Amino acid sequence: MRKSIVYIVSTEDRSIGAHRCLDYFKLPDYTGKTVFVKPNFNTADLCPGSTHNDTLTELLRAVREKNPEKIILGERSGPAVTAEVVAEKGIAPILKDFGAEFLNLEELAAEEWVEIDRPDLHWPGGFKIPRALTEADAVVTTCCLKTHGFGGVFSNSLKLAVGLTPKDFSTLHNTPDMRKMIAEINLAYTPDLVLVDAVEIFIDGGPMKGVRHNAGLMFAGNDRVALDAVGIAILKSIGSNSAIMDKPIFAQEQIVRAVELQLGVTRAADIEIITDDDKTEAEVSRVRGILQNG
């Protein structure tokens, strides 16, 4: 079986780190296509509370260089109001620079949503995603590595998908199936690339505010299970809360359900972490060991 690649770099500069990750994976040609870009804007809190503008800028630059006809930045914040978050973060000038448009998912009309349902889902009556996402030719995302203090346990590439659903905290947060439901949203799309900002992370608390730690890392890939497994290994290598430290990586419910849904690798042995500098290799060797040992 071909291994899933996770490319990782040590950096304190998000622009440089993002550029290196994007240069390694090299997005495909998007000529004449529509690309849907999903950031992490649940609030306007400082990264890792939300996507850093430097990270978003480099991601949009990489997408624009592949000549798409349209770039859509789609997001639904929560608990904050989406329009207020975008304004507070100063996103409009960035979008203008790269000819991208913003799609406020919080303001979509009923007919602009598509329902996804199947018998094995834990969502009562299924879940909804934006029609624009289903009609896009490609999806590229960026997220922040952090713990999640409201039942998710951790937030990374799988958890990012929650912002693609309507704002309905009662359905998701008032059930023991929350972590399984998070994974299930990811059935709606397959990203060409996920860029993870782990320059500064939350090792407890989150997702808006938490205990900060300067991890000095950025990583990327297109296998969401692999990316989340590596993210948890990084949290374990630094030291996190009991929900992270006391459970094996592939026993975390988000990952268990994602594996069941065939969203990515099924075991740590199928993940290959790659770096290309000595500084990162020292950090990565420890993460590799934790990943393989669970």
- The third-level CATH topology is Rossmann fold
Which bin fits the share of residues in helices? 25-40%
- Give the terminus-to-terminus CA distance: 20 Å
SS summary, helix count: 11
Radius of gyration: 18 Å
Q: What portion of the residues fall into strands of 2 or more residues?
A: 25-35%
**Total E-strand runs:** 11
Q: What structural class do you assign from the helix and strand content? A: alpha/beta
What report would you give on this structure?
With 294 residues, this protein is an alpha/beta fold. Strands 1, 2, 3, 4, 7, 8, 9, 10 and 11 form a nine-stranded mixed beta sheet that branches. The chain has a two-stranded antiparallel sheet with strand order 5-6. The longest helix has 16 residues, at 278-293. Strand 2 (34-38), helix 2 and strand 3 (70-75) form a beta-alpha-beta unit. The chain has helices at residues 14-25, 53-64, 82-89, 91-97, 131-135, 169-173, 178-185, 224-238, 242-245, 253-260, 278-293; strands spanning 4-10, 34-38, 70-75, 100-104, 113-116, 127-130, 138-148, 153-155, 193-205, 210-221, 271-274. It has one domain: LarA, N-terminal domain (Rossmann fold, 3-Layer(aba) Sandwich), CATH 3.40.50.11440.
